Amino acid sequence: MAVFWKKMAGGVLLTLSLALLGWGAEGQGNRRGKKEVLGSSMVYLGQDRDTWRPLIHITVNLSDISSIKSSFQFRTFDPEGAIFYGDTKNGEDWFVLSLKDGVPMMQISKEDMIVSVTGGPKINDGRWHTLAVSNHGKFVILEVDGSDGLVVGMQSKQKEEVASGGLRLALGGILINKEHMIVQFEPQMDGCVREGNWLNLSNPWEVEADELWPCYHNIQPGSYFPGTGLALFNTSVFPFEEDNELKIELWGDFTQMNGPILSIGAPGQEPLFTLVANNNTHEVTLTFGEEKISVKNTFRRLLMTFMKDLVKVFQDEDQSKNTTISPVSHPEYLTTWRNGHLAVGGLLGEGEDTVDSQFLAGCLENIQIQGRYLDLDLAIKHPSISSHSCPA
């Protein structure tokens, strides 16, 4: 992914209201007031929290461990993110399992060595996969669906110490400084873990949230907006010159969408462009400057090409459904694209620190700008939005 795509969330002044959803999972409390769940529970890893902070974690004595293997089922469409972490010696020796480009990646620190290895099958296909991590002396083995996915061998010249003390395990984050890892990655993972068997331990795990959000029974690729918030980007990160075109392409079942899909505007100004779905009238309305046009919502692909004085709109592949909007000359056009905001799933407000109260309900199966996939993990977004999966 290009560098400018990594910078989308930087420097945005808009403040979003991040009210958590009322979803929950059964859990017990402990003496520190933390909720607890069994390690076999189904856990949605994409729940909002501090970026690298684990969602659930556990600390046990190494003397209580009778197994060398941890296994669990895992499902995602997300190509990148943190899954499973473990350490001893208060983080001196550690292990991180993540995804990078949909492929498993293990990073291990032990004594005077740090190694990173990536390989095995792509597993971000939305299916449940059984993963198992085990330690066999000098080797750490990752199995994927019963077959060896990764085997890492490590041998130090130092005399190996007898393991003692505590062991920490965590899901959805890490407990060390991210700078210690060889390979950096985006930690947020829109995925689910279930049926975990962690070293045969029966101890409950501590939950770093008021409630655990559920996983959808069936999922499909896309970004899901439940009608409670939006995702925000700076337009300055998109490649655009005054004499060039800028293309935004959206895929999805527009008959199942309701509310604002897209809005673009300069700070302190009314939105220059809006795209709104109305399930009552079965229409999608595009507004650019002072021009407005409504089309039936029976399409699955919408391509919008922005130029200095007009917007071309293409529905599906049918050339007969092409529409051109030629607005009155808009003095804020170039300013908007250079220093404005793009909101997906909501309407930008009149000021930098306000947003409209209406939000999109529906699934955008794919969002592309200038032919590049738009990753909502890089946006400032409401925690209820799922970046890579929608309920099917």
From TrEMBL:
<feature type="domain" description="Laminin G">
    <location>
        <begin position="42"/>
        <end position="215"/>
    </location>
</feature>
<keyword id="KW-0677">Repeat</keyword>
<dbReference type="GO" id="GO:0005576">
    <property type="term" value="C:extracellular region"/>
</dbReference>
<dbReference type="InterPro" id="IPR013320">
    <property type="entry name" value="ConA-like_dom_sf"/>
</dbReference>
<dbReference type="GO" id="GO:0005496">
    <property type="term" value="F:steroid binding"/>
</dbReference>
<keyword id="KW-0732">Signal</keyword>
<dbReference type="InterPro" id="IPR051145">
    <property type="entry name" value="GAS-SHBG-PROS"/>
</dbReference>
<comment type="function">
    <text>Functions as an androgen transport protein, but may also be involved in receptor mediated processes. Each dimer binds one molecule of steroid. Specific for 5-alpha-dihydrotestosterone, testosterone, and 17-beta-estradiol. Regulates the plasma metabolic clearance rate of steroid hormones by controlling their plasma concentration.</text>
</comment>
<dbReference type="Pfam" id="PF00054">
    <property type="entry name" value="Laminin_G_1"/>
</dbReference>
<keyword id="KW-0964">Secreted</keyword>
<feature type="signal peptide">
    <location>
        <begin position="1"/>
        <end position="24"/>
    </location>
</feature>
<keyword id="KW-0754">Steroid-binding</keyword>
<dbReference type="InterPro" id="IPR001791">
    <property type="entry name" value="Laminin_G"/>
</dbReference>
<protein>
    <recommendedName>
        <fullName>Sex hormone-binding globulin</fullName>
    </recommendedName>
</protein>
<keyword id="KW-0325">Glycoprotein</keyword>
<keyword id="KW-1015">Disulfide bond</keyword>
<keyword id="KW-0446">Lipid-binding</keyword>
<comment type="subunit">
    <text>Homodimer.</text>
</comment>
